[in-house]
Write the structure tokens for this entry.
Amino acid sequence: MLTAALAACGREPALDQLAAGERGRVVEARSGGVVVLASGLVVRLAGVDPPGWDGAWEAAARAALDRLTSGREIDLLYGGANRDGYGRAVAQLRVREGRVWVQQALLEQGLVLVRTHADNRALATAMLAAEARARAARRGLWARAGAVLLPEEVGPATSGFRIVEGRVRRGGSAYGRIYLDFSADGRGFAVEAPARALGDFRHAGKAPEALAGRLVRARGVVSGEVMRLDHPEAVELLRES
């Protein structure tokens, strides 16, 4: 039943914009974000990750990915760097039967989070929209507290990839970095990005100094009270009613 539900929501013609890659049969879902093809090629799903702060959701994502892909022929589609540091392919996946976009299907069920990278951010908008639909419907991990943190909930013990939603108090660039402060005195939660990303942020309409006063949702790796990210798609501008 879950496979049918995933397939029903996972079709996306935007995949045709990407570069065609390998094709093969999946023999194993190694985790909630990695599959293995019969050829031996290990493939990491581009743009998504199960939440590392909850082992139960990692297991649920793996089970869903296995049901969706195991034994099926898939197409790999590339929209950025096609290999990671471990030699794994990094691709968007489409099940040939029914042309099901795997990432979108998992996001729609609330089993994974959008996690793009500076060298691999194709279809970020479409993936964020799929995640938002699951969040609005409180499906999967979005039915639990803690999937999105407030700035004041981030503390010295917070670590790993997290999503934090709050109002930027001030933003700018200095000392080789972009910064967004979420506290008035600059001593609380903050987002940092390398200065080399400043042009990308400005081009995306997210110049750091212009974000002061804006409500945003940021996603990146947190250590203590600092989130580090390196591309503008990791910062969503939120509408306010």
About this structure: Residues 1-8 have pLDDT under 50 and may be disordered. The helical segments are 2-9, 55-69, 102-108, 124-137, 198-203.
